[in-house]
Amino acid sequence: MQSKICTLFEMTRPKNIVIAIITLVVGYMLLGFPNSLFAPDDCNSDLDWIGWSIVIRLALAFAFAIGFANIQNDILDLESDKVNRPERPLVTGKISVKTARITWISMFILMLIFGLDSFPLILFFPLLGLLLIAYNKWLKHIPLLKNMTVAFLCTTPLLYALMDFIQLSKISGSINPQDFIWAIIPAIPFAFLLTTAREIYKDLEDETGDLKAGIMTFPLIAGSATARRLAGAIILFTWISLPLPIFYMDKVFGHNYPPLFLIITGITLTPIFAVILFSARRKNYRRAQSLTKVAMFLGLVALIASSTIN
Fold first, then answer.
1. What are 187-203's pLDDT values in tens digits?
2. 273 by DSSP, 3-state: which?
3. How far apart are CA 302 and CA 297, in angstroms?
4. 168-180 burial, b if ≥16 CB within 10 A, otherwise e?
5. What's the CATH code, domain 1-172?
6. Which range scores top for mean pLDDT: 34-38, 42-46, 169-173, 275-279?
7. Residue 125: pLDDT above 60?
8. Residue 47 in contact with residue 37, Cβ under 8 Å?
9. In 3D, which of 117, 102, 140 has the Cα closest to residue 61?
10. What's the pTM value of the predicted model, to 2 decimals?
11. Any residues with CB less than 8 A from the CB of 286 and at least 6 apart, and which?
12. What count of other Cβ atoms lies within 10 Å of the Cβ of residue 144?
């Protein structure tokens, strides 16, 4: 029994759950409230609008969302995983399809429970759940749209934090949203672009199994060379765009990131992006997609470090 629980836990992709939780916390911190994360839940200050109880509840909601989606996805991808991921539990028989199905439905319900909030945020997790199911059943079979859908899903913790702040600032009436939301805006396209590139690299890695299973991905439709060039172009575009938060944010939000942001990202992301492109050229797509995750994490850290000294 314990072995099955551990195996089901592995099927939820704990690394992806950790990334989502970190992204959620980063989202709230970018909104200018790093201290409010450590404030008592009963603090009445206008700025102390989030405590650990709220963070933990939302973290669990996102964890169950990711968990149910990945387990359901493994059920639907059973045939292709026999080639691409022969070590996965459903392929090896460690977990039955029936057990996996019961688990993902239970996690879907738990996601709805922990995601309960006031209107309109009460609709967020039901809609997120429907999008995840739609992706697993239909959207992942549409080349390139599937990659962009996953990229959008990876930005949802940031989007939730932004929507939560805007809603609570309206209720408070004493907070000007533009004084705070400038910091989170660059994080959303940054995460979207890098996740899109990572998903293309993942498709390149899975070409053989996807072809056998009849799953037509972008590399199979456009060719692996074209897909590799597109992912590389996205990486390069992200790198070229790094100075934008320093020079152009004030035109819309009245705030710019300090030059420290470009220094941090230049030192950390430039070599990582170079290795990603080199790895992809050598067709080491697993390394390319892993390093893309690292780049996204370092970029978010740079945003936090830079926004706190603005």
1. 999 999 999 999 999 99
2. helix
3. 9
4. bbeeeeebebeeb
5. 1.10.357.140
6. 275-279
7. yes
8. no
9. 117
10. 0.88
11. 205
12. 17
| CA distance readout (Å), 220 to 2, 88, 130, 289 | 40, 23, 27, 18
Report which of residues 308 and 149 the model is more confident about.
149
CATH 1.10.357.140-classified regions of the chain = 1-172
Residues of the chain with CATH 1.20.120: 185-310
What is the structure's pLDDT at 150? 95
- CA distances (Å), 98 to each of 7, 67, 84, in order? 14, 16, 22
Question: Is residue 175 within 8 Å of residue 169, measured between CB atoms?
Answer: yes
- Phi and psi angles of residue 236, each rounded to the nearest 5 degrees, phi first: -65, -40
The CATH number of domain 185-310 is 1.20.120? yes
Alpha helices in the chain (DSSP H): 2-11, 14-30, 52-76, 78-84, 89-92, 97-114, 124-137, 145-172, 187-205, 207-213, 218-222, 224-240, 244-247, 250-253, 260-281, 285-307
pLDDT digits (tens, 9 = 90+) for 46-92: 445 566 788 899 999 999 999 999 999 999 988 878 877 888 999 99
